[in-house]
## 1
Amino acid sequence: MADGSTDFAFTSAVETATAAVWNKVRSRITPLEWRLQAPLIAEINRLKAEKNAVILAHNYMTPEIFHGVGDFVGDSLGLAREAARCEAKIIVQAGVHFMAETSKVLCPDKRVLIPDLLAGCSLAASITAEDVRLIKQRYPGLPVVTYVNTTAAVKAETDVCCTSANAVQVVEEVARQFGVDRVILLPDEFLARNVARQTEIGIIAWQGRCEVHERFTAADIAELREAWPGAEILAHPECPTEVLEAADFAGSTAAMNDYVIQRKPRQVVLITECSMADNVACDAPDTEFVRPCNLCPHMKRISLENIYEALLHDRYEVTIDPAIAVRARAAVQRMIDLPPPASPARYDLVKARHHVDVELI
Ligand code: SF4
């Protein structure tokens, strides 16, 4: 609507335009909710075409966003790489602020919008560029590997980025290139501890935490095993090591998604953010999802309403100092240029090393 109101009607034209989405999400959304969401979905998709825009929807978006308006869906780096390849002039980031920054870093000529400027991240907020500069002074000559869940300013201070899917590979490759046996891996302490169990390379870690994954415990897993003895338990590597030790599989959101789609477990538990299971469930009708999960309050700031407002008013644009963007892009590009992993992107829980010391900064 021209006045910015989101009071759209559920007409037969809207029903027809959104029928395919409804078929996909109907197990996760009530008919009453759908009558409110479908008109917005139709209007957002119309606006995208009118403005030559695309929406990048992270795995932790709710299903009406993920399946309803997302042009590219997945993890943060996969989204940004897709965005860099597309012809659109505008990117709306249905995710948190560091993801929008990564998109801007990789797509400097596109306008990148985030629907809510307060969509932050406990992990990205745990470390600053100044912190990284001090760490480099303390450990001269050691390479700094930074998780993509960081600000552009932090990425700009580091040698190479990594994701939860390739962290082990990046650590080993950068150690080989620098000729060292220790690597600084920032900022997620639990990811660093879980990586350390997969490699002989010594890890120096920062005490950053994801507020969603740090709350899971081994006791949670034990309770789940008792209540759902047949369920396969998949954990994200941002969880504490004791959680991974108790799980059946550990991997990134992309690896979890592949596991469910390819192996079709009868019952599964995804130890991660709540919307992940909802979104995978829409594509895995034969699997029963047991749902202990934690909500990310930052991801949940993004809604159909503020995506619509972002598109309508071209807000809120994410900008990065060009000098920082160039250096951050180099760190991301070094990761992209690494040789493809020799083994699938998963954490080998059987071969994981025990009692591994990690030096905490
Ligand atoms: S799920 Fe964790 S890492 Fe992801 S945005 Fe939320 S707080 Fe940050």
## 2
Amino acid sequence: MNFSFVLEVEIEGFVVVGRATANKKMRLSEQGTESKATPMEMDGRMATAKFDETGRVHDLMPLYYGRLFPTNDMYRWLAYGHDKKHPQADQEFFQRREFCFTLEGDIFCRYQSFKDGAELLAALRDKVPEKIDLGPIYNVDPKRRAAYSSLGGDRVFAPVERELVFDVDMTDYDDVRTCCSGADICGKCWPLMTVAIQVIDRGLREDFGYRNLLWVYSGRRGVHCWVCDSRARKMSNEARTAVAEYFSVYRGGEKAEKRVATTHDLHPSLNTAFEVLEKHFLEHILPKQELLENSEQIGKILEMFPDADLRATLEEKLQKNLEKKESGRNFQDSVELWQELERAVGRKKNRALFKALKDVVFVYTYPRLDVEVSKHMNHLLKAPFCVHPKTGRVCVPMDPAKADQFDPADVPTVAQLLNELDEHEANYGKENAVKGEEASNTSMGKYMEMFRSAFLDGLMSDVKLEFAQSAKVANKIADATKPLDW
Ligand SMILES: [Zn+2]
């Protein structure tokens, strides 16, 4: 596909369509506030729950953008304080951010930009994207990139800052999952994401000193982390790569034991991570994945122990236990078997075997990052509060301190939210809804609260502090350069 060609055409189309379809816009915004004109209702399927979970997610998106998408909060975040009449504020900051809309039919509209939240909202209602990606802040408004570059000289359209981002996807754990594979997730494998959040969150805060971290459920099978400290946003691609590599314990290779790059003396950060990993391994991963009650996993785990005698003894024991389980007789579960394995290693008193025990824990629990996403400033990443076009689930923010309480099955779908909105209006009347805050009357409310309390409030106070500091510096410079009047 000629990617850039599609983009250019779409960008032109966007400007023209945006001006030429005032009527269409009106219709959409009416739908946005008036929930009477939905296709489902016209089908005559109107019941107490008007919006059908099995219907097409895209049909609900005009209403979602019109009534629920938190444009104000998104704008507050992405403007980083440059939204007020502050002497230090860069009024074009938000407008230099690239938004990429994916329209129905996989049509990419890259290099979209907006003056403020209101303009973003108008575009969302007009274009009804299936997905919104966020790109970097460029040196000029991305819409003006061609005109800028054509001026020649050293004028090159280029990204200048962007959040440091991390992407953890459950599909990368397929070789250590016994419950599902591919895009599927369940309560047995989700703890792997909990571990990833806890390990990466701790590392970013304690080892790198970052403070403003936004964690988001990707809507289906993974999580994203946005590091929003200004120090992280201004990092070069090389520095981003170094941070991503810091969190990459795996070094490729076919077999699990070859992919773990730990040494006898673990880096202090890996030692700290190990405490979290081991706890989750024993409490969740081993019992839920039943790792030592699965032929394939038994083979992989035993291969990691460099002692043929130990392997042979354990292999026999574990296979016998498996036969018992399969024939419905009394058997030992994976946690008991792991304790036996530890005892067997203890009797051997061999350092390499002790290391193998740790390696198993690392291989089966350590976060697996898609490092390519983190390495480049101009990599696009799906925006929080998008709706997954297949599952209909909202990409809600997560509180890393409560990661172990997060259940993806609880995440509301767009149909559920719209039904809740209607129900709330039926019970309390429309006049009770505060414009722009309608989400607070639905199950999205608690996620909005958390977005603010676990992320946005802290970010805003840091931003305020930075503005105050730069104002102080500016004043000092002004004082120092003031002509002396004696
Ligand atoms: Zn699963």
